[in-house]
Amino acid sequence: MILLHVCCAPDEVIALEHFSEREKEEVTAFFFNPNIFPYLEYVKRLNAFYKVSRSYSVSFVEGIYESSFGARVLSRFAAEPEGGRRCYYCIKYRLAVTAKYAKNSGYEAFSTTLLSSPKKNPELIHRAGYEVERASGIKYIPFDFRNGIDHKKIREVLKDVYKQDYCGCVFGLREQVIKKLERDKKDQMQLKECFPQYEHLWRFRGRKLDLTMLKIDGREELKRFLEILKPSSLVVGTELMKDFGLTGKWLKCGKYNCKIERR
Ligand code: SF4
């Protein structure tokens, strides 16, 4: 019997897809994440956890939300970047409580869905996991949940499941907001430099943009413009689809993928 610490529903889906039907019967999902701030966000992630656990028919249990955890533990490492010591102690604490619960409830081993995340360093998680194993006497299993992921299936399963857009704590959230502001500033300056005639279109950043608002010369220039502006989608009439060679639902613009919507 394995107690599987669940950090969030999307990572839980990836982990549960890893197990066969028979193996799933041996797994109990355990939601213990006092790192999540604010509490309303915690409730959203908890409800998503219930939804996924029920749909996969696995046993599940919620740990106790300790509202003082951020101030008591994580604030000591407030200035650390994501992936540093703050995350190490955050992960280790969540695994330590998981192992304690496992021991008290008769489980043989524990693991975590943090191992599903492409944003987390598995070495850091394993280091915390083995330390907790030594201290608790409960076996840590270093699953490789990212191996052989069926991305199409995962996207389908997650269509109606809440997906968070930051790791969890207030410090990570702050770091993310600062990075976003810096990116916005850089892109806005680039827009001014490269496309001064469209400086006024900055307000379409993250919003739908209609291609008829632009007088752009060819596909490559369009891609360059979209990569800088990053609208949520580009609305295109059938006649212009052909002119710009827009055949699919997405247009790859450097590292940014722009959604294409037919008018
Ligand atoms: S960024 Fe995530 S893993 Fe790191 S301390 Fe915050 S909640 Fe924990």
Automatic annotation (TrEMBL):
The UniProt entry's GO biological process terms, in alphabetical order, are: tRNA queuosine(34) biosynthetic process
**Signal peptide positions on this chain:** none
Task: Give the transmembrane ranges.
Answer: none
Q: One MF term in GO for this entry?
A: 4 iron, 4 sulfur cluster binding
Q: Does the keyword Transferase apply?
A: no
The UniProt record lists the EC number as 1.17.99.6
Q: Which Pfam families match?
A: QueH (PF02677)
* Iron among keywords: yes
Q: What does this protein do?
A: Catalyzes the conversion of epoxyqueuosine (oQ) to queuosine (Q), which is a hypermodified base found in the wobble positions of tRNA(Asp), tRNA(Asn), tRNA(His) and tRNA(Tyr).
Q: Its family?
A: Belongs to the QueH family.
What protein am I looking at?
Answer: Epoxyqueuosine reductase QueH
Q: Native species of this protein?
A: Kosmotoga arenicorallina S304
